[in-house]
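Assemble and predict.
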Amino acid sequence: MKHTHGQMKKIKIKDKFALFDEVWTPKIIAESNEQLVKLAKGDGELVWHSHEDEDEIFIVFKGKLTLQFRDGDVVLNKGEMFVVPKGVEHCPLAEPDTHFMLIEPATTAHTGAIQSELTVTAKDQEWI
Ligand code: NI
């Protein structure tokens, strides 16, 4: 779908979540000041990684997302958010059917420099 950037149209987040089922495959819904707003679903573990130059914002809309850090976990429930600072290693772990939003620079790869079978490259990320 053509993205809505610059079209002055409101975005219904719930409707956007209904458009896809893949897990750990962020979909772009908006862009602002070179940051992308993405929606993703999670189930199980992603992969340990960090983002050298970018902070990463997680906002949970449904389910439970645990951000695992080397020195402990942060558990995010619906309506809660967290900013993962640049350079900090993390590994997201989600309950089945967890829905969350990510806000991060367009250059951010969701598994950092780590290539895993779950990695979606920036050019593969699609607008919905
Ligand atoms: Ni990350």
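The CA atoms of residues 50 and 88 lie 6 Å apart.
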